UniProtKB/TrEMBL annotation:
Organism expressing this protein natively: Crocuta crocuta (Spotted hyena)
Organism superkingdom: Eukaryota
Pfam families: DLH (PF01738)
GO molecular function, one term: hydrolase activity
Family: Belongs to the dienelactone hydrolase family.
Name assigned to this protein: Carboxymethylenebutenolidase homolog
Signal peptide extent: none
Gene Ontology cellular component list: cytosol
Keywords in alphabetical order: Cytoplasm, Hydrolase
Gene name of the encoded protein: Cmbl
Length: 245
């Protein structure tokens, strides 16, 4: 994802080797990866991809982790068959590519996945988690869809001057201190607006020394100084879902 004022796309980080514990299904007009908990809890989470697409093993790993904690997790193809960003491409073309992938124009896909979760998976309580591009999408749906009982936006860019505080339900925002894509000034602005206007529970956590993508794109055996932050962020994500979904 890139800061629209200062384009600086993130790299793919560590693409882990992971096959996934779920399966691919067709959900109306889009494909999706679905992974289920050991037993049905009536709870589900939509996991929204980053710029590298719904098939990125890292994102499926996170979905499986969420499923292991008691949720049906679904990773839909929010690019609707269009190619995700390939890190081997010319980064100068990234801003134009991004214009064709608007994280705030996903309502048709969200509606389809909600129907699938309610009708096919018998979900009664639903949350949403997104990374990078998906973090922006989470912020969008948490301001529009009251049926999402909780959201977790992980390093999602905040647009300047936009209504960013009208959240419908509890939302956790996770950021990295050394994120070249999301300046701390934007995080501070979001904090100020939520503190002044937000009517629901929210939390903003900024992780010391971390960089963009740290929650889902660092190796499991990452450096000793980073691992506690990765583990804490993932634990916070699950705890937020447990508390509100």
């Amino acid at each position: 994802m890139a800061n629209e004022a200062h384009p600086c796309p993130c790299d793919i980080g560590h693409k882990i080797e992971y096959g996934g514990m779920g399966r691919e299904v067709q959900v109306e007009h889009i494909k999706a990866y679905v992974t289920k908990p050991p037993f049905n809890t009536g709870k589900a989470v939509i996991v929204i991809q980053d710029i590298f697409g719904w098939q990125l093993p890292n994102t499926r790993y996170m979905a499986d982790m969420i499923a292991g904690n008691g949720y049906t997790a679904v990773v839909p193809d929010f690019f609707v068959g269009h190619e995700p960003w390939d890190p081997s491409r010319d980064w100068s073309t990234f801003p134009d590519w991004l214009k064709t992938r608007d994280a705030r124009k996903i309502d048709r896909e969200v509606d389809a996945v909600l129907r699938y979760l309610k009708q096919q998976c018998h979900a009664q309580k639903i949350g949403v988690v997104g990374f990078c591009w998906g973090g922006v999408a989470v912020h969008h749906v948490m301001m529009k869809y009251p049926e999402f009982r909780a959201g977790v936006s992980v390093y999602g860019i905040i647009k300047d001057g936009e209504d960013v505080h009208s959240l419908k339900n509890p939302t956790l925002f996770i950021f990295a201190e050394n994120d070249a894509v999301i300046p701390l000034e934007q995080v501070s602005l979001l904090t100020q607006k939520l503190k002044k206007h937000c009517q629901v529970e929210y939390q903003i956590k900024t992780f010391s020394g971390q960089t963009h993508g740290f929650v889902h794109r660092k190796k499991e055996d990452c450096s000793p100084e980073d691992k506690p932050y990765v583990d804490e962020a993932r634990r916070n994500l699950i705890e937020w879902l447990h508390k509100y979904v």
